[in-house]
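User: Sequence in, structure out. Go.
Assistant: Echoing your sequence, followed by the structure tokens.
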Amino acid sequence: MPELTFEPDLALNDYAGLKAAVLRGLGIGELPGLLCGKDIDAGRLTEVLPQWRFPDITVYAVHTGSPGLSRLARLFLDIMVESLKVGKG
């Protein structure tokens, strides 16, 4: 396989910023499907390496318990449980 080298003009460490840049036509980016699926379906983004996927990861949410959990943290956990279709166990 040929080697490709390049010098990026823009480097970001934030998926929201990267998605905004790609949607504005500033280049290509590595975005998780969770963030770009609707844009791909709507034709705003195009997959350029459909055979490549991010490796699976395990995500843990650890906290001190419900009495000390802020409303924002509780909402985040609830959204993650629902969107990732995982159990609370």
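User: And one key feature?
Assistant: Residues 1-53 form one domain.
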